[in-house]
Amino acid sequence: MQSSNRTVNVGLIGLGTVGGGVFRLIQSHAARYLETRGIDLRISRACGLDEGRARELGVTPAQFTTDWRDIVDDPSIDIVVEVIGGEHPATEIFTESFAHGKHVVSANKALLGRHMEELAGAAHAAGVQLRCEASCGGGIPIVDTLERDLSGNTVLAIVNGTTNYILSRMADEGLGYEEVLADAQRLGYAEADPSADVDGFDAASKIAILSSIGFATRITTDDVFMQGIRTISAEDIEAARDLGFAIKMLAIGRRTDEGADVRVHPAMIPATHPLAGVSGAMNAVYVVGDAVGETMFYGAGAGAFPTASAVVGDVLALAEDISAGVKPLPEPEPFPRQMPVRSIEDLMTRYYVRLLPGDGAAAAATETLAAHGVPVGETIARGDGSVVLVTDTCREGDMAAALGALAAPDAAAQVANAIHIENIAAWTEGVEAN
Asked: What is the pTM of this model?
């Protein structure tokens, strides 16, 4: 057995799904951490609102508190784990922990996606670390990988587990969105209010954090264009399959000469692309680097233990130094805004447009699209009487104007849906030949 210089004390704030997983992992593996790594890691305090839940987890009365300040103010605690989510009191937990010289580990993607610069700056000024592996992809080790192992990134793309489950079930079983969403909620893949996932905010927070790291520039959730999957139908998925595509909700971060292209929306991608093969509730992060080329990280992105695994990994990274009497390096200065964020209106892409059945709808829609600078490359009549138009590459702003014209009450064609066709070939432009 390796000797340990001193005990590393952890204060855990939040005893919900993830917090419970963190507590159980540390409690059940503490002896192994000591034996294999020489780290005597203990949860000395645990904060929650439900004492019954705490007892179920095995939290002792001496450990338990309902006031997070008992943890932040405790001079014996080295690392604060925040897994309550939200903006308040999470922000105060971060800033007061830093002021007391404590490192913070968090899975709070919503807070960090918007306020990473301020919070990382506060950690830097206090000489402590802010670690957030669990905020992007749950158990997938992508944050540390981008920070340490991959450089020169040009593209990041994320598949979100909840929306992937919904779209996969729709594709595999021909079911409608509402029916699959209800099942996802029943099984715990989607929250009672699923907006954060299905409308894109969760994925936008992740792509903001990862793009900031991958492109070394400050990007916030508010910079990210968001469009959800509520309008995707079984008919769209069947039509996409006939065209050789799969529909995925993608969070895309791309480095371009004009700036960072950051967006979240449903997209058609070739059925042969690795991201198209990600099924069920699994998450994936696809990274293209100018030197390494194409890589993909795949795994469970939610749930008690996958997310808790990432949290505990961050705790152990800090505890290794603390246990040996070495002060962990402070958080680096946060990236300032060094790269402009490209307007979604300037995106150049193709589109799938499905028209409701109607006499002359295809001709009328084609004329309207052309009048707004959107050329139609292919027209496909479907068995149900609807018509699919596949445009040539066009500017997003022009497409939005054309769709606005087609939405007018007196328009001769009615649009059932319009979906981006992602230019996958552009993702590998500039990659060094191997």
From this structure: 0.94
